[in-house]
## 1
Amino acid sequence: MASKKKKEAIDEGKSMEIRVSLFPDEVLERVLGFVKSHKDRSSVSLVCKDWYTAERWSRTHVFIGNCYSVSPEIVARRFPNIRSVTLKGKPRFSDFNLVPPNWGADIHSWLVVFASAYPFLEELRLKRMTVTDESLDFLARSFTGFKALSLVSCDGFSTDGLASIASYCRNLTELDIQESGIDDLGGSWLSYFPESFTSLETLNFANLNSEVNFDALEKLVSRCKSLKVLKVNRSITLEQLRRLLMRAPQLVELGTGSFSQDHLLRADAELEAAFNNCKSLHTLSGLWEVSSMYLPALYPACTNLIFLNLSYATLQSTELAKLLPNCPLLRRLWVLDTVEDKGLEAVASNCHFLEELRVFPADPFDQEGIPEGGGTGVTEFGFVAVSKGCPNLRYVLYFCRQMTNVAVATVVRNCPNFTHFRLCIMNMCEPDHITKDPMDEAFGAVVKTCKKLRRLAVSGLLTDRTFEYIGTYAKNLETLSVAFAGRSDRGMQSVLEGCPKLRKLEIRDCPFGNSALLSGLDRYESMRSLWMSACKVTINGCRLLARRMPRLNVEVIKEDDNDDTQAEKVYVYRSVAGPRRDAPPFVITM
Amino acid sequence: MPSPLEHDYIGFSSSSSNFEEEVEVEDLKGTELRLGLPGSESPERKPVVGLSLGLPKSSVSGLKRGFADTVDGSGGWIFSGGSGGGMENGKGGPLVSQKEENGGGTSGQDSKGHVLSAKAQVVGWPPIRSYRKSMMPTNLDKNKDGIEDKQSFGCVFVKVSMDGAPYLRKVDLKTYDNYKELSSALEKMFSCFTIGQCTSQGVQGKDGLSQSCLADLLHGSEYVLTYEDKDRDWMLVGDVPWDMFTNSCRRLRIMKGSDAIGLDLYNGIYLPAAPRVKEKSKNRNDLANQMQKPV
C-alpha cells in the first residue's frame, strides 16, 4: 500500500515536472517578471535550471548588500537586463568614524563594467560608497536614459559632480544626495539643469550648505510638474519656501529649509495659505532653526502627514504638544530630546497610530557645565509614556542617559510588536540607574516578548546574560549591534549559536576573543558580515578563521604598527569575488 | 597589549587616574602652568589649579576634550583600539590612538563625584552619525561643511578652550566687533583659571587679584590666542580681517605661548606666522614626552 502510494506520488511528480517544463521560456520569464522581492527571486532561482535561467533574464533590479561580496563582472555575467542597481559599501560603523578614510567601496569600477553591460541602466542607489566627481561625470555621460540617482551617506564627490548630472541626464527623475558628506563648492550646480528639462520627480539636496540660485530653483520647480519630493537646504528661507510651495502644491514629501526669517514675514496668512495648498503632503522634514512663531503655519499641511522628521528642530515640549494634534495620522516621528519626557507624553496622547519613534540627542557630546539648551533629554519615563499611548510601535531608536530594567520591560509589555529595538544609553556601561543592576533584564524582556524582533541594538552595563537571552529567544533576529558589553567569549558565542537568522553582527569594545570569533565558523557564510573592533581577537585567530573558511574574506584593519598580535578591527564577510583587489595598505586580508 | 575593558562590575575604570591618557591630546599641555615668555627658560612648573581645592592631578583630566569633538569634525574621541583614524571625510589629523590601558571608561562619576571628569572619550560614541552632528543647528561651530554665510544664522558660537582649564566655554563671535572686544571678553571669562598662577604656588584664590593679572599673562605672551579655521588649520588670532575671522573661525584656543612654536607675538596683536603644519601632530609628540605613563 505504502509503496503504491509512493509510486503514484512519483508519477505525479514526474508529470508535474513535464508540465512545468513545457512552459515556453518567455511565459516563465513573464510570470517571474512579477516577482519583485530579492528574497523571492533568490528562491525562484534555486528551483531548477530553467527557473534559474528565466529568473536571470527577467531580473531588472539587483540589490547587493555588500559591494565586496561579488564583483561587477559576475553580476553582469549573470544578469543581462539590469536597469536598476542598489549597492551598499562600507560597514555601518564607518558612520561613527571607526573605518579609516580611503577604505574602499568606490563605485567607479562598477560603473565601468555597467557602462558596457547595461547601457540602458536607469537607476543607481548607493549607500556608504565613495563616489568621485569623475565617476558622476562618467555616469552622466555613459547612460543616456539614466533616471534616478540616490546617494545616501556617500562621500568623495563635490557639487561639481552634481553639475555633471544636471547637465547630461536629460531624463532624470530623481536626484537625492541625502546625508552624503560632500565638498560643497557652491550652489551653481542647480543652474545646470537645462530649461527644457522637466522630468524631475525627486530632488533632495538638504545636506548642502551653500546657496543655490533661487531663481533657477523656482523655475525648475515650476516646470517639473511631476515633482513629488522636494527637500531643500538650509539656505532656503521661509519666504522662498513659500514661493516654492505655491509652485508645487502637489508635493508629497517636503523638506523645508531653515524655518525662520530674520525679519518678519509680510503676512503669516500667506505662509499658511501656501501650506494649506499642500494637502498631499505625507512626509515633512528639515525645519532647521525652526521658530515657534512660524510653526503654526505648518499645521494645515499636517493633516495627512505620515512621517514627521523633527530631528533637526530644537523644539520644546510645549511646541511639540501644540503641533502634534494637527497630525492625527502620524505613523513615523523623529524628534530631538529637547522635547523631553513631557514632549513624549504629548506624543503618547496624540499619535495613536504611531509605528516608529526615533529620539535623537541634541547634544550628545556636550558634557560641559553649560548645556546648550538646558534640559536633561529624555528618560525612562518618556519611553514608558509613549509605549502606553502608542501600542502599534514597532520601531524605536531611543537615545537617553538613564534607563531602568523595569521601564524597558513595561515598554515591551505595552508594545510587543517591536521589529526594531535600538536603545542607546549614552553613558557607557551605565547600569540601571535606580537599582544599579546591569541592564540584562531589560534586553531579556525585549527578546522574550517581541517575537518578531529583527533588529536589536543594546547598550548600558551588560553581562553575558544579555547575550544568553538573545541567543535563547531572539529567533528572528537579523541585525545586532553591541558596544562595551559582555564579560567573556560566552556572550558572543550564545548569539552565534542561538540566532539562526542573524545576518549582520557588529561589535565594538567587547571582551570577545578568538574562541568567540571561531565559534561562528558555521555561521558566517550565511551572514552578510561581521564587524569586530577593539575586542580581544588576535591576528592568529583571524588567520585561523580565514584558513578554515576560504569563502570568507577575513580582513584586518591595521592603522598603526604597534602591537602586531592584536587585530584592532576585523571585518568578515562572505564573498564570491575572492579577496579585494583594491584594498588599501591598512586593510590586510588574511 | 591594550585591554580596553578592564572595568569592574559597575563599570568604573580600575585606573581612573589614567584618565589623563584618555583626554584629547590638545587639552593637556602637561597639566602644568608655566610663567615666563615663550622660548625662555621656564621656571619650576606649578601644578594646575582645578576647580576645587586639593584635587589630585588626575582630576584635571576632567578637561573636556576641548577640541576632540571638532578635531575630526565629528566628535571623535580617542579610546583603546579605536585608533581614531576613522575620519569619514578624510579631513583633519588623525587622533592619537591610546593603546595603553585606559580602562573601560569611567561612566558616571569618579570617586570624588566629579561630574566634569566623568566621561571617557571614545571614537564614535555615542553612535551619532557624522552627518547628523554636522547638521545640528545648535552646533554650528562643528559644521564641517563650512557654512558659507554664517551671518544669515545670526550667531556664531565657537568653543573656547584654554590649556589647563578644566572646562571650556562658548562665545558668540557675533557679539563682538573686533579683536579687542573678543580678547577682553576672553580675559574675563578665563581669569578664574589663571588667577592661581598669580598667587604663590598651588594656592588658588581670587582675593585681591585683578583681571589685569590674566591680561598681563595674555599680553605678556604666556598665552596665545589661536583658532582653528575652516580648513582645520590652527592660526594665530589677528591674522585676518575681523569679518573673515568670524566666518572661518571654528573654535578658539588659548594656548600656552611656549607651545605655539613658530608663531610670533607682537604686543598682544598676533602676527601671522602660523605654520600650516597640523598643530596636533606636533603637540602629540610634546604630550607624549610630557605625560606620565601609567605603571
## 2
Amino acid sequence: MAKVPIWDLPDVPTGELPPHIQLQRTRVFCKSDAPTNTENIQYSGAYASMGVDNSLRLDQFRSNFKVEVMRLNEDDMEFDMIGIDPSIANAFRRILIAELPTMAIEKVLIANNTSVIQDEVLAHRLGLIPIKVDPRLFDYMSENDVPNEKNTIVFKLHVRCERGDARLTEKRRLTVVVLIFNWLVTEWYFKMAMACYAVTSDELKWLPNGSEFPLAPENSASNSTSRPKTYTSFSCSQDSLPQFSKNPITLKHPDIIIAKLGLGQEIELEAHAVKGMGKTHAKWSPVATAWYRMLPEVVLLQEIEDEKATELVQKCPTKVFDIEDVGKGKKRATVARPRDCTLCRECIRGEGWENYVALRLTIESTGALPPEVLFTEAVKILEDKCER
Amino acid sequence: MELGSVQDQSASTFSLTDEDHTLANSLRFTLNQDPRVTFCGYSIPHPSDARVNIRVQTTGDPASEVFKDSCQDLMLICQHVRSTFDHAVTNFKN
C-alpha cells in the first residue's frame, strides 16, 4: 500500500468548515416569513470539534476588514464596512447619535415677545436649530460655571413687523359671496390681506462680544468696571480668537422659519448656546440620523428563464434583476444590483429563491461637521470609553 | 468602576457605571472571541440606572486580566477601523 501523507486523507479535518456551515456562519438568511439564522456564532470554541478556531485574531481582523466609501457629500455619506461585527457597528451608530457633542441653544433670555408664538415654544424651536461651528473648540459648561467665551455662543434676535414693510407677504384673501334671494344676485369680494412676516433663522445675529442685556440690579456702588455686568462675562471678544476671525459663527441653514409675525408684533431675545450631547436632549445630536444595514446578497437557486425571467424583473420594485440574453433566444435573469434590494421579499412570493444578507453600514449625517470627521470622532470616543 | 471579584479569580462580575449597551455589547463580543473565555454576558439591572454588569468566566486565567485584554483589543480594533476609514475617505476624495 502506498504511503499517503496523513494530511491528504479525506476525513482529517482540514481546518475549514464544510460549505453549508460556513454559509450559516457568515450570513443571515431571509426567508419569506421571517429572517433565520440571525445570531452570530461568537463563541470562540464553537467549532472546536471541527478543528476550526472561531476566535478573533487581531491580525485576521486587520487583514479582512475593509472600508469602501460609496458617496460623500458635505451633508451625508454612505460607506461599507466589510468584515465587522454588528455589535461594534451598532456601538458606532449609538455613539454617533447620542454621544458626539455639538453646540445648541440652551438658554433664551426674552426681553419682548408680542408674537403669537409662546415663549417656551419659541425657545424650543430655537434650540433645535443647528449651529455651524466646530464643537471641539468649546468646553462643556457645568452648573457652577460662569458663561464665558470658552463655553458659550451668544445670538441675538430683534425683529419687528411694521406696516408697509417690504417683507410682508399677502397671506389670505377672503372671498365672500352674498346671495340676495330676490331677482338680484350680488357678489361682494372682500379682500382681507392678512399680512405675515416670517422670521427666518438668518435674523439671528452672532454677538462675538457676549451678552448685551445688563444684569439686574445694577449696583452703582460696585461700578468699578467700565463695562456694565451682563449675563455673560466674556473676557475677550470671540471675534479675536483665531478660529473665529476668519469663519464667523453662523447657523447651518439660513432659511429655517422660526416664527411668523403680524403687524406691530415684535420679538427681542438673546440666545446662549452651549455644548452638550445627544444623550441629554436630541437637539445636541450632530446627525439627522445614522443607520446601518446588512448588505443583501440575492442568490437564485435555479435557472430562471423566459417568461419567468421577465416576470421576476417586473416584480422587484427596486429593479434588482436584469435580463441577460443567453443564445438561442432564451433569456435568463441575473442579479444586477443587489445593493438596491430592500428585502421586500416580493420576489420570493412566487417560488423558491433565497436572499442572504452580508454586512454593511450606511451613515447619514447633518451638519455642523463633515460626516467623515464625525465618524472618526465617534470611534475615538469608543476608544476612550475602553480606556477607563 | 470595577468591583465584584470573588475568591475564585477565574470568574467574576464587573459592574461599570455610566455605561450602556454601546460599550457593553462590543465588549461582550470581543470577550467572546477570546479563546480563554468560557462564558461571557452582560445585563443591565435597571434601564433608569446607567449601570452594566459584565460577567466573565475563564479557563483558569484571572478574569480581570482577560477583561483588560479584551478592552485593549477593542481599542486596537477601533484604531484600525479609524485608520482604514481615513484611508478610504482620502482615496475616495482623489
